Amino acid sequence: MSRNIESHLSEDREFKPSKDFARKARISSMAQYKRMHKESIEKPHLFWAREAKELDWSKKWDKVLEWNAPDAKWFVGGKLNVCENCVDRHAEGSRKNKAAIIWEGELGEKRTLTYQQLQKEVSRFANVLESQGIKSKDRVIIYMPMTPEASIAMLACARIGAVHSVIFGGFSADSIVDRLEDSQASAVITADGGYRRGKVVPLKENVDAALKKYKKCRTVIVHQRTGEKVSMKKGRDYWWHQETEKVSSIHKAKAFDSEHPLFILYTSGSTGKPKGILHTSGGYLTGTYSTCKYIFDMNDDDVYWCTADVGWITGHSYIVYGPLANGVTQVMYEGAPNYPDFGRFWKMIEEYGVTIFYTAPTAIRAFIKAGDQFPQKYDLSSLRLLGTVGEPINPEAWMWFHDKIGGGRCPIVDTWWQTETGAIMISPLPGCTPTKPGTATLPFFGVDAAIVDENGKECKANEGGRLVIRKPWPSMLRNIYRDKARFRKTYWSDYSGIYTAGDGARTDKKGNFWIVGRLDDVLNVSGHRLGTAEIESALVAHPTVAEAAVVGKPHEIKGQAVIAFVSLKAGIQGDSSLETELRNHVGKIIGSIAKPDEVHLSPMLPKTRSGKIMRRLLKEIVTTGNISGNITTLDDPTVIKQLIKTVTKKSKS
Ligand code: PRX
C-alpha cells in the first residue's frame, strides 16, 4: 500500500506573460530566473546580502547567516530600525508627498496618508508608547479594525523595539485572554469598535472582558473609530487622539539588532493551544521587501491592494512591512467584500486605479457565487497583476479570476507560504513564469523546496509527498514563543535540519509545485492517500458548484469514505439527481476512487474568520452527528445546526 499522497488532477492550460509585461518586469525570462535561483541556492549569502543592502542599516552585518539547525541568525551583528525602513527613508526622500495609504472605511469615508504624514503619525504614536513606559522587547497586543491606525500602531511598536502581537478583530474575548497570557503583554492597543457589514464590532468591550481575567496589562490605548460609548478605566485606559496631541511629531528612532524580535503572531494549530510564531527584524524585512519587489514587481507608479486583514500574516508581510519597505502606494479597506454588495472591491479598483490586486481563493469563490454582474459593472482596466494566497486555488476559480477580473491580460501569482515562513516561498514571477491554474509554480530565490517521502527521500515528478524546505531563509520563524520544544517538534523533527511545512504536495515534470492540502486533510481511501483539495477542485469545476469541502468518514471496507459538502451558485436549485451527477463528475475528472460516497448540498460551509474551511468540524459532524470541540474560531456558528440537520436527515432517509 502506498503511504504517499496520490495526485490525480491534471491541468493542461498554460498561460505565459505577455511580451509587453515581460519587457517591463524585473525578471523577464526563465533563463534569468534559473540563473538567479541557482546562485541563490548555491551562494545564499551573496544573493541575500545584495537584497539586504537595498535597505538602510545603521550598522552593517558581520556575517550573513549563522545556522545551527533549527536556529538561524541572519545578518549577524547588523543593526537597523524596521520602521525607519518602511517610513522615514521614503518620507525624507523623493517619495515624501507620495500617498502611502489610501484608506476607505466600510461606510465610505476616505483618507489618504502621504509618507510624510505617516512618518508624523507613527512618530507621535511612538512617543505616546514611550510616555506610557513601554520599552524595547515589551509585548503589546494590537486588536484593531482595518484602519491606518492599525498599521501605525504596528510600526510605532517596531520603531521603539516593542514586540507587537496583532489579534484579528473578529476574535472573541477568550481568544484575547489566551494570547495575553501566553505573550505576557503589558499593553493593549485597540479601538472603541470597528465596522463589519454595517454593524459595530465591540472591540473595547471585548478587551475589557479579557482584562478582567488577565491582570498584568498596565496600559490600554483606545482609538476612537465609531464614537460608541465605551467605559474607560482611570489610570489604565487612554484615548489615542488625546495622548497624541500631548506629544511631538518628531521621534528619533534607535537601531536594533538584526535578530531583535519584531512580532509574535498566533496561528491556530489544527487542535490545541495557538502557537505564537516569533519573527525577528533584519531577515524578515529583507524577505518581505524582496518578495514584494520581485513577485508583485512593485514600481513607483503602482497602486497596490492586498485585501487581507492586518490580523493575519498576509496583512503583516503584504500590507505593512513589505509594501511600505518598497515605498509603494497602497489601498486599505476596512470592511466586508459584500458591503453594501458584491461590487465593493471592483468599485474601489476602478476608483483608485488599482494595478496590483492580491486576495484569497475563498473570496474569489464567494464572488463567483454572487454572479458576474458585479465585476461587469466596473472598469477594471487599470489592473496589471493579480495574486492569490491562503489555500490551493481551484482551477475554475483561477480561470474566473483570470478572465473576469484580469480581463485575460493579467498574470496571476498564486503564492504559497505560511505564517511560519514570514514571506512568500513558492510563486510565479509575473514577467517570466508560465502559469497553470492550480499551481503555485516554482520556488522563490533562496528557497530550496522539495517533496519527500516519509523516509526523507525525494519523490519523483508526479509522486505525492510532503513539502519541505531544506535550507534556512531570512524571514523564517525563529521560535514558537517561549516554547523551543514545540518549535523543534512541530517543524524540525521529521527530518534532520529540514523544515516540514505540514502540507502534502507534488511537483510536475517542469518542477511546478502543486499543493494538495494540509497533511492532516489527507484521506486514505482503500489504501490510496487522496488530498481533499483535489476532490474539491474537481467539484468546483462543475458549472453548478460555488464551493466544496471534502472530509473522510470511517468506512469498514475502504478505511475512509469520501464525504463532500457542496454549496451551489446563486439561483441554482439542487436535488438528488444533481448529487449523483456531481459524484459521477468527480469520478470522471479524478477517477472512481475519489467519487464521493455522499454529497451534501449546503448553502453555507463552516469557515474560520480568515475564510478557511474548518474540515475538522465537518469531519466530526459526519462521524458523530454532533460537535463537541471548540468552535470559537468559527465565523458563523449558526452554520453548524443547519449542517447537522442536513447530515442527519440524509442518514435517516
Ligand atoms: O496549507 C497551506 C495553505 O495555507 C497554509 C498556511 O496558512 P497560514 O499560516 O494561515 O498562512 C496563510 C497565508 C500565507 C499552508 O500551509 N496555503 C497558503 N497559500 C497557499 C496554500 N495552499 C496552496 N496554495 C497556496 N497558494
Number of helices, where a helix is a run of at least 4 consecutive DSSP H or I residues: 20
Task: Tell me the strand order in the biggest sheet.
Answer: 6-5-18-17-19-20-21
* Overall average residue pLDDT: 93
Q: What structural class do you assign from the helix and strand content? A: alpha/beta
The CATH topology name of the domain at 531-652 reads: GMP Synthetase, Chain A, domain 3
Present as ligands are:
adenosine-5'-monophosphate-propyl ester
Shape: globular
Major sheet? 7 strands, mixed
CATH architecture level-2 label of the domain at 531-652? 2-Layer Sandwich
Helix content: 25-40%
* Proportion of beta-strand residues: 15-25%
Q: Can you tell me the CATH class of the domain at 531-652?
A: Alpha Beta
- The number of distinct β-strands equals 31
How would you name the CATH homologous superfamily of the domain at 531-652?
ANL, C-terminal domain
Unreliable runs, pLDDT <50, ≥5 residues? none
Q: CA-to-CA gap between the ends?
A: 35 Å
Description:
With 653 residues, the protein is α/β, with parallel strands linked by helices. It has a domain at 531-652: 2-Layer Sandwich (GMP Synthetase, Chain A, domain 3). α19 runs parallel beside α20 (638-652). It is globular and about 70 Å long. It starts with a strand and ends with a helix. The model has no long low-confidence stretch (mean pLDDT 93). Bound molecules: adenosine-5'-monophosphate-propyl ester. Residues 267, 313-314, 389-392, 414-419, 440, 501-503, 515, 518 line the site of adenosine-5'-monophosphate-propyl ester.
